[in-house]
């Protein structure tokens, strides 16, 4: 099962709690797609590695940069804040994944 999440600003801890809840309440192996500001990437990597092995064996993760994937990035930036718009690009970034 794939789970995509966007984290910016001071949302690191909130996002980690959400991810841990998914691990604890899921019977399936999870794949986290974490879209985060560059400054948060090392923190995500460090904190996820610090989880107990009983948790870390139940998921894989990848941290992606915040990016406007379609068209003119400058135009998109005028319309949306970068973190708020990331979910709009998920179908483009993962065309082979089911909803």
Automatic annotation (TrEMBL):
Organism domain of life: Eukaryota
Protein's recorded name: Glucoside xylosyltransferase 2
Provenance organism: Sphaerodactylus townsendi
């Amino acid at each position: 099962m794939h789970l995509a999440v966007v984290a910016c600003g001071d949302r690191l801890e909130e996002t980690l709690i959400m991810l841990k809840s998914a691990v604890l309440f899921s019977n399936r192996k999870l794949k986290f797609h974490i879209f985060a500001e560059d400054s948060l990437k090392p923190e995500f990597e460090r904190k996820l590695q610090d989880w107990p092995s009983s948790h870390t064996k139940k998921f894989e993760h990848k941290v992606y940069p915040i990016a406007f994937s379609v068209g003119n990035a400058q135009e998109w930036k005028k319309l949306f804040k970068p973190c708020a718009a990331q979910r709009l690009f998920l179908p483009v970034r993962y065309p082979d994944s089911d909803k």
